[in-house]
Specification:
This protein has ten helices and nine strands. It has about 325 residues and is an alpha/beta fold. β1, α2 and β2 form a beta-alpha-beta unit.
Amino acid sequence: MAIQQVEHPLLWGSKRYHTLNHYYREMYGEKVFKVSLDGGFTCPNRDGKAATGGCIFCSARGSGDFAGDRRLSLKQQFREVRDRMHKKWPNAKYIGYFQAFTSTYAPAAELKEMYEAILEEEGVVGLSIATRPDCLPDDVLDVLEDMNGKTKLWVELGLQTIHEHTQVLINRAHSYDVFLDGVQKLRERNIEVVVHNILNLPGESKQEMMETAQTVAHIPVQGIKIHMLHLLKKTPMMKLYREGKLAFMDQETYTSLIVDMIEILPPEMIIHRLTGDGPRDILVEPLWTLKKWEVLNGIDRELERRNTWQGKHYMR
């Protein structure tokens, strides 16, 4: 393989990496934001089908801490969250984001009804569905393929890491091979995939984190979400923390690692996220992640300092 030769910085708008915001503005000509929803699902590593207890880092709300209230209907949730977001972006289009838990973990007919309920809302230009690769049976894939023909669809798969020893430790309850199988099934139906990657998982070295990034760069996914591991109150991971088995990066180390990763990702891959939000009231570590814009601005400065950009060292 040869390193792609680019003689000048690639720019996506004002950024040196291919942001989701730029992608949507190019597609729709205006701001598009996600409306986060809780469809009332659970996960197969919570209910005993694959395991119990869930991923050790996952909150009681199944990573849907900023999603709508599951006690409300999906349409009520959508309108509440949309109206709240409109205070920041009064003129925008919307992506219905099924964020909490495993959002394909229900009978196909029920899923179809849920997804279509959100597509009916005015201003919705797409769906983003967060799920697991072991929750994609054929009838659910049929529904996703149908949605893909009606709207812009992303299916988000939580890989987190390629390393099996970490997958076991965090109770992911599926293997990397299962992830690859899920990607293949979705791509066979021309459905675009976003992979989730968490940095600083227990016991992982920088080399292992970079191995995950290098691997993701060469599998057929169209987007990536990366963020720092969050330690949240009342999660199983608190036990490791109390035992002194968790060490968290500082912001400078994280920034440097993120830029290393950006350099090896293909320039066409859309970066949906480079830092994550942890709920302020339950976040234990690292507290610097609460300053989201400081983190993102720091990444921009480091890219400029190095005179580097997404894909500079990507190997075709």
